[in-house]
Write a structure and sequence with these properties.
This protein is mostly helical. Helix content is about 50%, strand content about 5%. The chain has helices at about 50-60, 60-75, 85-100, 105-120, 120-130, 140-150, 155-160, 165-180, and strands spanning about 40, 45, 75-80, 80-85. Helix 1 (about 50-60) runs parallel beside helix 3, helix 4 (about 105-120) packs across helix 6 and helix 4 (about 105-120) runs parallel beside helix 8. The radius of gyration is 19 Å and the shape is globular.
């Protein structure tokens, strides 16, 4: 005879490191809800829109994906060299999208990763204006975390540099050079 469970049902989703049985590991952006987007900032304020933009890149047609990536770039790497608090949290998802063949703007994503890897704006500013380091929100820390997030996935470069698309292979080669410096 079975006894009834004494646990109360939970209304919260269980946290899982691995996808449940039967769910493909290739489902993009599964971990988006693990990031507290509303609590971190991008160049516009709250980073709450970033998951929508990442989904637009993942699932949109070429025009939708390109527009979403342009908006995302302005939010996390303004002008191609100014990173924000949300940048480091976004980088793993960019790496994920760069590897999905159905994503139409993969080369542009890889170039964005290179821009983030090259970002030194806040460090350069802090070198001449050290008071920047005393602020409660320290953009130098954001910049370093973003660069580290790009470097953390450099093992993915081998697969991308061998891509059949020459634009992707070229962008990956440039990113690899930036990470080697």
């Amino acid at each position: 005879m079975r006894s009834a469970s004494t646990q109360q049902p939970s209304s919260e989703r269980p946290e899982r490191d691995d996808p449940p049985t039967g769910v493909a590991r290739t489902t993009p952006l599964m971990a988006l809800d693990r990031v507290p987007w509303r609590d971190i900032r991008d160049s516009t304020g709250s980073a709450a829109a970033i998951p929508l933009l990442l989904n637009g890149i993942a699932w949109g047609d070429a025009d939708t994906a390109r527009a979403a990536l342009d908006d995302l770039r302005k939010r996390i790497c303004q002008y191609g060299f100014v990173v924000e608090q949300a940048t480091a949290a976004t980088v793993p998802f960019l790496w994920e999208l760069a590897q999905l063949p159905r994503v139409t703007c993969r080369a542009q994503i890889i170039r964005l990763l290179k821009n983030i890897a090259d970002a030194r704006q806040w460090e350069s500013t802090a070198a001449v204006y050290p008071k920047l380091l005393n602020r409660r929100e320290n953009p130098v820390v954001w910049e370093r975390a973003a660069r580290q997030a790009v470097r953390a996935r450099r093992g993915d470069l081998t697969r991308l540099v061998a891509d059949e698309d020459s634009e992707i292979a070229q962008a990956t080669t440039e990113l690899a050079r930036a990470l080697a410096e």
